[in-house]
Amino acid sequence: MRIRVFVSMLLTLLAVQPAAAQIPPVPPGWQIERTILLSRHGVRSPLHSAAEMDRHAAQPWPSWPVAAGDLTPRGAELMRLMGRYYRVLYGGRGLVQADDCPPRATVAAWTDVDQRTRLTGRALLAGMYPGCRNPRVNNQADLSVPDPLFNPQPTAACPMDPASNRTAILDRIGGDFSSVLREYAPQLTMMQATLCPPGSAKDCGLASEAAGIQMGKGGRLVMTGPIAIGSQAAETFLMEAADGMPADQVAWGRLSGDAQLVDLLKIHRLDLDLREKTLPIARQRGSNLLSVILAALQDGHKFPGLPQIAEPVRLGFLVGHDDNIANVARLLNLGWQIPGFQPNEPSPGGALAFEMLREVRTKKLYVRLAYYAQTLEQMRTAQALDARQPPGMVAVDLPDCAGDLHLKSCPLERFVEIVGKAVDPACVTVTP
């Protein structure tokens, strides 16, 4: 192992990161013990079929090179670039091998069952260690049933009652959608003009359905009407831009620039916030994940998918979806901002990092959080990432630990208390 040869060089490079990166270094006299990253999949094609999406638009949507909802070739390339950067970052911090293949299973990924999550996990680890077989990418063997870590199902103890969840959502917005539609009128008006410009011969746009909440696939609640249509369209515009489509294909060339795209993404943020950050829903759907993250931080042998004889994981990726990150962010009241996106948006390929550090002198353990994601411009251009050209990244505050921080890090025992209060034990069905 030649990791020490490279660590000093990488630390020097990391020290010259732009101030905007806002990621503090490992404090002197401390060492990083383990990191668990909850990552969203990379850039994908639209989740809905072209025929379904075309109902709301005056012109056909651009074609994609993959099936609906799948990771695109550009999406895989962007994830390899992120993987390469994680190797630079965490190799420079002494957590993982910087120069050769890591010991078996010390770097691993557990992904959801969808193609876009499985291929994202492979791309991340291939970017970190091209040619190495040691990093493990695993997923549930049966791809036909939901993985309870990323898509928990109702149980007798945790019924996930749609009626009460619907009421909880409506309670947040005053009982109906009238106030929300007024508040987001500028974005909805812009979206209508983008989907269906004035003078279009086709009857299209946002008015085909009333604003509401319905039961969707698997009993999950989904928005209907202008918010749902606008959210789907805004995220599709984002995926078009991130996939490097020509400007005249992104929203049919009807947006004046990224500022308008970011403004339209407010509709998507609203949709995700109502569906996944309403507290009862976040507890039902996020308790498994947050419990597993804590267990794996405390004991690397408890990272999903590792064989019993494996060394403990040091860098583990849990690769899921934007709703998974939204659930956990709500449980811990987390926030961040990456250029080119709305505040707190789980952008394609973005990851919420949980880092455990040890103060060597006292042997005390601490947890700190960060969010890593390529900016929209970095995605559009497939920019290579390194210590001098890092992705968008920001330290993430843990509000409930504000009074107990030491060098901007939360004592592990306090973090355990915070997680214990955040999760619903009745909804924890996954045993680490």
Detailed description of the structure:
- The chain has 13 helices and ten strands.
- The chain is α/β, with parallel strands linked by helices and 432 residues long.
3D shape:
globular
What is the average per-residue confidence, as pLDDT, rounded to a whole number? 92
- How can the largest sheet be summarized? 8 strands, mixed
Secondary structure tally: strands:
10
**Radius of gyration computed on alpha carbons:** 22 Å
**What's the multimeric state?**
single chain
* Broad structural category: alpha/beta
Terminal-residue CA separation: 30 Å
Strand content: 5-15%
What portion of residues is helical?
A: 25-40%
Count of helices? 13
Q: Low-confidence stretches at least 5 residues in length (pLDDT < 50)? A: 1-21
Topology pattern, helix = H, strand = E: HEHHEHEHHHEEHHHEHEEHEEH
Name a few traits of the molecule.
13 helices; two-stranded antiparallel ribbon; alpha/beta; eight-stranded mixed beta sheet; 14% strand; 432 residues
